[in-house]
Amino acid sequence: MKYCTSCRKLHNDNEETCTQCRKALKTVEDENTPVFLISAEGFEKERIIAALADEGIPTDTKRMKKDNSAKAVTGVDMSDVNILVPYQAYEKAYDVCVGIGAIKEENEEIIDDGEYKESDAKPLDRQLEEINGGSKAGRIILAIMFLVLAALAVFGTDAITGFISKLITGN
Ligand SMILES: [Zn+2]
Questions:
Q1: Is the pTM of this model over 0.90?
Q2: Quick one: which of 59, 57, 56, 34 has its CA closest to 45?
Q3: More confident call, 30 vs 170
Q4: 3-state helix, strand, coil in the chain (%, to 5)
């Protein structure tokens, strides 16, 4: 596993630079390396840190922007912070965040998106097939009806019965 030394997000070993900071990645060697878990602000941040503390996971925070104007007004620090956890506790911390709804399971969302795309595409294909097939069948039916009417006019009903039986049996 690799991590970004700037934002401390975890990355796969096959990645070379941070997708967010474009900084070179470093391999995690120390199990206690603080890694990025989630960014949050105000009460959400407090809620997440408290939930992690309940599970015995220590946290560190890294301020994203230096804006203390909100704190001056509300007495609550509303600026975004990155919540960092030791690398070895990352998975558990992630699960805790999913459990309290702070993190949505990205994998599920991706699968859902895939399903939506498929289900959107398939009916469209089917619709096109139905439109094409339908109009083709419609033209054939119209042609047969025309022949039947023409035969009725020219030969009478007996000929039509024979004509239809020929259509069906192919003789
Ligand atoms: Zn980064």
A1: no
A2: 59
A3: 30
A4: 55, 15, 30
Distance 23 CA to ligand 1 centre (A): 6
- Smallest CA-to-CA distance from 48 within 10, 3, 80 is with 80
* Structure-token pair, residue 132: 């094409």
**Tokens found for residue 58:** 């220590």
CA distance 9 to 62: 12
Output the CA 52–ligand 1 centroid distance in Å: 23
Q: State the distance from the centre of ligand 1 to the C-alpha of 108, rounded, in angstroms.
A: 24
Per-residue CA distances from 108 to 95, 112, 134 (Å):
14, 6, 38
**Percentage of residues of the chain with pLDDT beyond 70:** 71
34: which 2 tokens?
Answer: 């603080």
Please tell me the distance between residue 36's alpha carbon and the centre of ligand 1 in angstroms: 9
Q: Give residues whose Cβ lies within 5 Å of ion ligand 1.
A: 4, 6-7, 18, 20-21
CA 1 to ligand 1 centroid distance, Å: 14
